[in-house]
Amino acid sequence: MNNSLNTEQNNNKQGLSGIVENTIFNVIIQLLILASAIAFVLETEPELEEYKFYFLIADWSFLILFTIEYVLRIYSAPDKKAFIFSFFGLVDLIAILPSLVLIPGLGHLPGFHVLRILRFLRVFRIFKATRFILAVDRMIEALGEVKRELLALVILSTMMVYLSACGIYYFEKVAQPEHFGTIPKSMWWAIVSLTTIGYGDVYPVTPGGKVFTAFVALIGVGLIAIPSGLLASVLTEARVEERLEEEHENRDS
Predict the structure, then answer these.
(1) What percent of the chain has pLDDT over 90?
(2) Average pLDDT over residues 178-182
């Protein structure tokens, strides 16, 4: 009897797995994701305040539908724990959590209402579309292969922010004490300069500060280019290997 029960459960899981992986089902989910993203944007318009009740209904609907889908995917997954902590499993969970503020009582808890702003993260589930899922997986694998290099880059960037803040503090502390009077104040300038954003709200006025800024800007260009080069190299290698595997499979068939 236990064997027949297990067989029936396995058949049910396989049936549900076939449904949640079905192309039509996934297309419907993608349309719901887009609809929830559009609703989130429109809800911020003051002119649409009169439709607040309808936005609330839509929120409830999205919460129920996404929760059902999430539960179905967990139930039909061969390895439930692996799915829950996988990239797309976490994205599915993020799509649900922000809407939990709709549940009476929870939305009034301190800090819980902040979850509503995370609703826009639902749009990242678009990557689950068949065409994009391989590209996302490839990028995740690429990040894993260069994680040591990226960690080293983060440490180097932190050191450069510190050294740049110290340097500009030395050059500008007398001329602009309101902006560079302390090293912590100078760190904002260092971050903006090293990332080559250059807002222009804070800038050096002394000759020494200007020369120092030029060196910092050049270093910043290099720091920005390094991770781009690393990822581009790994992604290119992964793409070449994938093409070679496809050609090998085609020859075998």
Answers:
(1) 17
(2) 91
**Closest C-alpha to 138, from 234, 227, 46, 42:** 234
Of 79-83, 206-210, 219-223, 228-232, the range with the highest mean pLDDT is: 206-210
Question: Above 80 in pLDDT, residue 215?
Answer: yes
The vertex-197 CA angle with 147 and 184, nearest 5°, equals 80
DSSP three-state, residue 105: coil
Amino acid at 27: V
Sign of CA dihedral 56, 89, 246, 15: negative
- In whole angstroms, what is the distance from residue 121 CA to residue 95 CA? 7
CA 187 from centre of chain: 26
Measured between alpha carbons, how far is 74 from 13 in angstroms, rounded to an integer? Answer: 10
Is the predicted pLDDT of residue 208 greater than 90, yes or no? yes
Its pTM stands at 0.56
Q: Give the residue-averaged pLDDT of 61-89.
A: 85
For the packed helices 183-194 and 207-252, what is the interaxial angle rounded to 10 degrees? 50
User: Alpha-carbon Rg of the chain, whole angstroms?
Assistant: 26
> Which residue, among 171, 167, 177, 178, has the nearest Cα to 207 in the 3D structure?
171
CA 183 – CA 186 distance, rounded (Å): 5
Q: Would you say 217 and 196 are in contact if contact means Cβ atoms under 8 Å apart?
A: yes
Instruction: Note whether 66 and 95 are within 8 A (CB).
Output: yes
DSSP, collapsed to helix, strand or coil, labels residue 239 as: helix
The Cα–Cα gap between 108 and 77 comes to: 34
Q: Among 233, 242, 237, 174, which Cα is nearest to 209's?
A: 174
